[in-house]
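Journal club side-thread
Mid-discussion, someone asked how the predicted structure for our own chain would compare to the paper's figures. Pasting it here so we can look after the session.
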Amino acid sequence: MICLDTNIVYHFLFVTELTSISERVIREAIIEGMAIPMIVYNELLYTVGAKIARVRYGVKEKYSFRKYIAKHGFPMEAIEKVNGFIRDFKITILKDYQDPDELVKIVQAYRLLPNDAQIVLTCKYSNIERLATFDGDFRRVPWLKVIP
């Protein structure tokens, strides 16, 4: 099983300079199966929703996005795009491993942001040793193999 980080999926869903690499990684990962922690699902909804709101409705800032959601609701197109990807590629959504003490230890030991440490913990307790990401910070975790 290969864990996907938010950025791999984002660059797969939207055409960017990293789309071809994301497509290759996902094609190769299909064979082994793919998973995302719940925190990645959360990040995907937010980033895809913000992108759609920016492109379609001119929403430019985080607080403007919050105001947009309060007035119009969360963009259904974002939910459909993320859930369609998960369904079409048979992605397993993992429950995040919850241990505040261990999270802080991972944050400190590997100098990671809390969300990234949460991904690391969920991979560890799900026996996943490979993470597809463009975030080089994960390379500081010695037991985690980062691809590409």
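Post-session note: The chain has a mean pLDDT of 96.
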